[in-house]
């Protein structure tokens, strides 16, 4: 028994020694892992460009408060990589729709980035009831000629919504005197911005003390403009074929009711889902159209969904 006990004790000692040696050998592995982790993923402080501007109006970066706020938005949007890549992908699809409408109305091209921060270029719904890519409220939509009801909501029509956004921005620019303040007014309203300017006895957005959302608004727009204009500079890598592409469509005019959009879609060789993808402003599976209004429905060209 003593021999067995001694043997077992010896085996145990060997096991402990083996574990000790294994532990010593494992230390370099952990160190190598840490080195690999550091080398594969680095987070860098960003150098804020010295000449940022919005719609031709410079951002006063010599002001330390403005510099810090700009730095924050560049950091947040640079290192939110998945969201950033989605913005590049969607911008390639939707900017070609937005840009010519802005140009037609004389609204600076930089305002396309306002749509990016408003909705991420998606037809989202805000808690306050704003809808679509441009996040237009029902009253604003109706005041500018858009139809808004349970059957049809033209805030979801990107072309028509961009037209309304242009009208709002042009009016804000005339009232407030600068494109920067016009952009702020898109978030806080013309009256709200004008009241703050008067209360604080200033004339410039960057001199205003504002709430969190409106206070960050212009900085977020400028940050997205800078990043989307310089992908490689901010570490975004993609190929042209990685970006989302617009599907060409043609317009079908309808001035009567449509009782069944499933059958309507099938008559053009598509299904109801595809019809709704291209016409999200059609809110129900039928069109009432008691007034015999002329609607233009987008139909994708043949071959893109087959």
UniProtKB/TrEMBL annotation:
Specify the domain of life of the species encoding this protein: Bacteria
According to the entry, every stretch annotated as the Transglycosylase SLT domain falls at: 100-204
The record, for InterPro entries, names: Lysozyme-like_dom_sf (IPR023346), Transglycosylase_SLT_dom_1 (IPR008258)
Which CDD domains did the record assign? MltD-like
The record's annotation in Gene3D superfamilies points to: 1.10.530.10
**Belongs to which family?**
Belongs to the transglycosylase Slt family.
Q: What is this protein called?
A: Lytic transglycosylase domain-containing protein
Organism equals: Aestuariibaculum marinum
